[in-house]
Structure formats: structure tokens, C-alpha cells
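agent> fetching stored inputs for the magnesium ion docking request
agent> found them:
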Amino acid sequence: MRKPVKKGIIIAFGELFLKSEGVRKLFAERLVRNLYFFLKKGGAHFKIHFFRERIFIETNQTIKAKKIIKKVFGIAWFAENFWFSDINQLIRFVGGNYPDWIKKNETFAIRVKKDRKIIDKIAKNINRKVDLTKPDKELFIENRNNNWFLYFKKIKGAGGLPLGSSGKVLTLMSGGIDSPVAAFFTAKRGAENIWLHFHSFPLVSNASIEKVKELAKVFLEYQPHLKIYFIPFQKAQMEIKAKTPAKYRILLYRRLMFKIAQKIAEKENCQALVTGESLGQVSSQTLPNIKIIEEIVKIPVLRPLIGFDKEEIIKLAKKMGTFEISIKPQEDCCTLFVSKHQTAQGDLKKAKELEKKINTSRIIKEALRGVDWQF
Ligand code: ATP
Ligand code: MG
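agent> prediction call returned; pasting C-alpha cells
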């Protein structure tokens, strides 16, 4: 009995050729799991088949599936695809259907990796002109363990590595424009995100908290689940404001934030902190000040935006869909407590001296007591 032709989407992994066989298998399994999650969440009917270097999503809802797959990290490209259980089935199918794909006056080329002999057999049934250099239509054919795939147009995938394949990071999420973009880049390279947001509620409105929750909804289109820590920071800020000069306050806030973040990271098994800092963007992001802030923690700090201009970051935020949320007004918990005259050239000794005036361990304990988290 002849099996019916299966329709769906073929997926090619990104960068997995760089990995050993064992790692590749783990990464591929992770990708399959993520695809399964997002397709299910999107309400698609599908089946997933896994071949050594390809994944085939069997589905009739290709438009819906393509939209979802486009956002899944770890995919180099994907294409609408037909799947055949033998070559004769493929030859017959192409012979019967090519007028739907290649118009009368159009040229075509058949691209096959190996098995070059089959090209003639397939082309023989196509009554159109061949052009191997600049064809109007390309027919890609692949053979994987006697499963034959036919597809036409490759669509660029989200790239990167399957989410979850690079461990976990704790992203310091302010609700501004930069930190969501930083989170996106780490997720793209396979790092699962947990978020941490410092707020000054009820001293200010809960706008920043609401913004972070809204940003999370966008981020959840890329990462299956997201845990967020909300930490009250107003007491820390009030104490720092009362006891230290304006020039150093932002550095002291940041050091405290990092210290608390490190504690949460340890608890959550996160291997790095992530921030949205970009070199020289504001006075707290100069090299001397980055050094002072980072000195307080042992954990690595990743800054995916370090080399980006603000304009570039805004463009990325718009593409991701976070920009409109990020620009909603909020009383930033730092701007509220900070004067315009910050030092861009802080001195570590001085910062540490000032820090002695504040009861850091008590502040940290209190802040951690107020912690609230949610998925
Ligand atoms: P963003 O747009 O991400 O807020 P920014 O340009 O406003 O960045 P800063 O306010 O100097 O820069 O903050 C630098 C980084 O410190 C942020 O990208 C973020 O990672 C972290 N950060 C700042 N404020 C908070 C906060 N309230 N909660 C958590 N992280 C914060
Ligand atoms: Mg900010």
C-alpha cells in the first residue's frame, strides 16, 4: 500500500555542526522539546519527527506553525516541506504537481546534496526550462535514511542555540529599554532566564512592576516559562541617600543590587548575572564605574549590549516587541533617589568607605525578606 504524502515543515539546526555528536544530540532534544511546547501552546495540531540533522513537523497548519517556529531559538532555517517514504513517490508527486509551483515561463533548478543521479529522473517529468545559475524556482531535495524531503523556499530562523542548552542566568530587569533586549540576547544563545526587578513600591506607584510583568508576556513567546523576583529597594535607597553624598549614590545602589542578585543567583543555580549596560551610555556605565560595581560580586556579569548604540538597541527592542512597553512612564527606583551629578570616575576605596556607613547586611536581609516572585 502506498503511504500518503506527509506535509509540514522541515527544520535545520543552527550551529550544531560545531558540536560533538553527544552534545548535538542533547541540543537537538532540547530543541524538539521547545518546539513541542510552543506549537502546543499555539494550539497547532502536529507531530514531530526527528532525523539526525533535521526535524520534521508534520502538520497541515503550516502558516500557523511557521509563525511560531520563527521565534524558536536554535534554528538556522526552515521550509514548508513534503515528506515521502520512497523516491518513486517523490518523482510521481513532482511530475503531477510542478505546474502549481513553477509557472509556464519560469525556469527551475533541482538541488540535491548527494544522489545526483536522481536529478535527471525528476527533471524528466518537469516540462519547464532548467537554469542552474539563476533559476526562478529551486526544488531542494534531501534523502535522510530513505526518507525523502522536498522543499522550496528556505526561511531564516531565529538562530542561536536551543533555549536551556546553555544553563541559567539571572537578568537584572529594570523595565527600561535595554534590559529586555539583553535578556533576549542571552536567551538566543541558549541561556534560560530568571528575572530580578528592584522596585520602590509603595513609595512610588507599582508601574515598574506592571511593566516588568508586561515585558514578561512578550518574553514568554521565546522562553517557555519565566520566574521573576520582585525585590523592594526603597529602604536601601533611603538609607544610602541619608548617609552618603549624591556623587556616589548610584554606584552604591548598584553594588547593593549586584550583591543581592548574586544571592538569588546562587539559590537558583544561575551561572551569571545579565545587565542591559552599554559602555559609556550613562555615568554608571563607564569602565571605572563598571569595575567598582562589579567588584562586589564573584559571579560573572554578562553585558550583551556593551557595544551597541542606543539607536541600535531601540531598533532591536522594536523588533522584539518590547519597546512600546519599555517607554511607558515609570518612576525609576534609581532616578528618584539620584541627583544629576554622578561621578563618571568613581574611586573604589571611596565607595567602600562610604559603604561602611550603611548597614549593608541588614539592608540585604530586609530586602530578601520582602521578596515576591511569580511565574
Ligand atoms: P534599562 O533600559 O535596562 O533600564 P538603562 O539605560 O536605564 O537600562 P541603568 O538605569 O543605568 O541603565 O541600568 C543599568 C542596568 O542595571 C539595567 O540595564 C539593568 O540590567 C540594571 N537595573 C537598573 N535598574 C534596575 C532595577 N530597578 N531592577 C533590576 N535591574 C536594574
Ligand atoms: Mg533604567
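agent> quick read of the result: The chain has two domains: 6-159, 168-374.
agent> awaiting further instructions
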